[in-house]
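Please go through this protein, sequence plus structure tokens, and consider how the sequence yields the tokens. Keep your notes short.
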Amino acid sequence: YISVWRDYPFSAYFTNSLIVSLTTVVVVVIASTLAAYGLSRFRVRGSSMIEMLILATQMIPIIVLVIPMFRIVRNLGLYDTRTGLVLSYSAVTLPFCIWTLKGFAESIPKEIDLAAMIDGCTKFQAFRLVVLPLMAPGIVATVVFAFLESWNLYLIPFVLTYSTKSIPLTVGIAGLVNEHKIDWGQIMAASTIGALPTLIVFLFFEKYLVANLTAGAIKQ
């Protein structure tokens, strides 16, 4: 464990993963919450097609998206940056989160929005003060999924990064295997450290996840 931190820029890799994953969670939760609420409440021409396109993106393997993503990020001048990783991670994670939260938003009766607006709320205030707290179970699940997905991605950062300032933990651990040696002790130590944040996130949100899963088990 000591040699991993001493002989490699492991702290930089860990910091990069933490910053990119947390930023991705914030971006994905905000965007997916607003998108899910809009799709569940406002029916406009083509909304069904938009929903199907969002779902269809989950059928495309990440390996197919890597080269187009690389060209887009490079043209934007974001190659080998944390910002480029955040945008790429968000693009991959967002469709599933939108679809998940849309189901939670549709389970909330629209009459609640109308009651809030009758009491003087605007549409946004009704969403922020009334609907958003009721979507908490879905938001918690989205936070967990977005963090785990961002933390564990390998192929995208492998293509979009090359320097220590932006390489995340997954690519850094894979770099311990080279043509000169394979130090299994260091690899296992690095993997154990890399697994700790995911365990912490799950343990922290476990009670909320269990409570939310069982909240609707009994109907009155």
User: Anything to note?
Assistant: The mean pLDDT is 86. Residues 20 and 83 are 8 Å apart (CA to CA). Residues 10-41 form the longest helix (32 residues). The radius of gyration is 20 Å.
